[in-house]
Design a protein that fits this description.
GO cellular component, one term: cytoplasm
GO molecular function: ATP binding; metal ion binding; transferase activity
CATH topology: Rossmann fold
Pfam family, one: TsaE
CATH superfamily: P-loop containing nucleotide triphosphate hydrolases
Oligomer: single chain
Family: Belongs to the TsaE family.
Largest sheet: 7 strands, mixed
Main location: cytoplasm
Structural class: alpha/beta
Strand content: 25-35%
Order of helices and strands: EHEHEEHEEEH
Number of strands: 7
CATH class: Alpha Beta
Length: 163
């Protein structure tokens, strides 16, 4: 598992941009991490890089937010509050079949219902200081496309941070 050091909220958004710049239709990104780890911040950078003009917000209470106005659609999901058969109300396969990117926060709840090819990210705080923005992102690609995406995104992130 590869690790990436992120030292600020701006760098986390650049990581999101690197993911967007290297994404292809049907890519699936699974985000794990404690509350406040940077999952939504990263997704905001991804959305901005896709050309989404409206604010990308956490879908904690809505479960799914759709952004269709960018270079390709972004479907941002948060299953933190999902219980029991709540997934039955969401046609996940329909979202995965669209020519967009699916980002799922808290995928642990539905892990058994997901395809085998995805890029998993675990976002962790480096320290417990309330104002610290230092994070470590662990990349856990599953499948050939996810491995390719992870490598391309890391290279793109290095380019973005060098500017």
């Amino acid at each position: 598992m590869t690790e990436l050091a992120i030292n600020s909220a701006a760098a986390m958004q650049k990581w999101g941009q690197a993911l967007a710049d290297t994404a292809k239709p049907h890519d699936l990104l699974l985000l794990k991490g404690d509350l406040g780890a940077g999952k939504t911040t990263m997704t905001q950078g991804l959305g901005r890089a896709l050309g989404i003009k409206r604010p990308v917000k956490s879908p904690t209470f809505t479960i799914v937010r759709e952004y269709r106005e960018g270079k390709m659609p972004l479907f941002h999901m948060d299953f933190y509050r999902l219980e029991g058969d709540d997934l039955a109300s969401i046609d996940l396969n329909e979202y995965l079949a669209e020519d967009g990117i699916v980002v799922i926060e808290w995928p642990q709840v539905i892990q058994d219902d997901l395809p085998e090819n995805y890029l998993g990210l675990v976002l962790k705080r480096v320290d417990d200081s309330w104002d610290s923005t230092k994070r470590v992102v662990q990349l856990d690609p599953h499948g050939p496309r996810a491995g390719e995406w992870a490598k391309e995104a890391q290279a793109r992130y290095t380019e973005l941070m060098a500017k």
